[in-house]
């Protein structure tokens, strides 16, 4: 990766500036989720302290499914493997927790990013807040303990 980074667990409020800056510039109302307090929030932080990638994960009450949302990497840091590092961490954590299906509503223009990392299209594209999304999913096998 070239740069020294660390993967950290975050408080949900810490994800908001990056979520807004990357996903919803000028729309802080769309950067926050009502369910944020129930999620797990992860980030990649440079050793300088700068947060450069964030993701939030929400596990279903029965523990069988997990959805990740608000996955954002600073524009100037995209293509450096930081988002991949974060997604791989989420996949590993989900497996360890016995999650069977990991999914997200991805922006359609990012579908190939998820496909390259083992996720598959699930259903038709749809519009939300003027952005086209597609559901991406991955079936997980629990890790051997």
UniProtKB/TrEMBL annotation:
InterPro entries xrefs: Acyl_CoA_acyltransferase, GNAT_dom, YpeA/RimI_acetyltransf
Recorded GO MF terms: acyltransferase activity, transferring groups other than amino-acyl groups
Keyword terms, alphabetized: Acyltransferase, Transferase
Domain of life, per lineage: Eukaryota
One Pfam entry name: Acetyltransf_10
Domain N-acetyltransferase stretches: 1-141
UniProt cross-references to CDD domains, sorted A to Z: NAT_SF
Protein name per UniProt: N-acetyltransferase domain-containing protein
Species assigned in the record: Effrenium voratum
Taxon lineage: Eukaryota, Sar, Alveolata, Dinophyceae, Suessiales
């Amino acid at each position: 990766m070239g740069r020294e980074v660390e993967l950290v667990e975050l408080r949900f409020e810490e994800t908001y500036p990056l979520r807004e800056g990357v996903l919803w510039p000028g729309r802080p109302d769309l950067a926050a989720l009502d369910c944020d307090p129930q999620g797990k929030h992860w980030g990649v932080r440079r050793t300088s302290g700068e947060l450069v990638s964030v993701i939030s994960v929400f596990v279903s009450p029965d523990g069988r499914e997990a959805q990740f949302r608000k996955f954002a990497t600073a524009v100037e840091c995209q293509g450096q493997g930081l988002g991949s590092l974060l997604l791989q961490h989420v996949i590993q954590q989900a497996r360890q927790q016995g999650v069977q299906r990991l999914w997200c509503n991805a922006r359609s223009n990012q579908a190939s990013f998820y496909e390259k990392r083992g996720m598959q299209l699930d259903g038709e594209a749809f519009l939300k807040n003027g952005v086209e999304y597609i559901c991406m999913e991955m079936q997980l096998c629990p890790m051997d303990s």
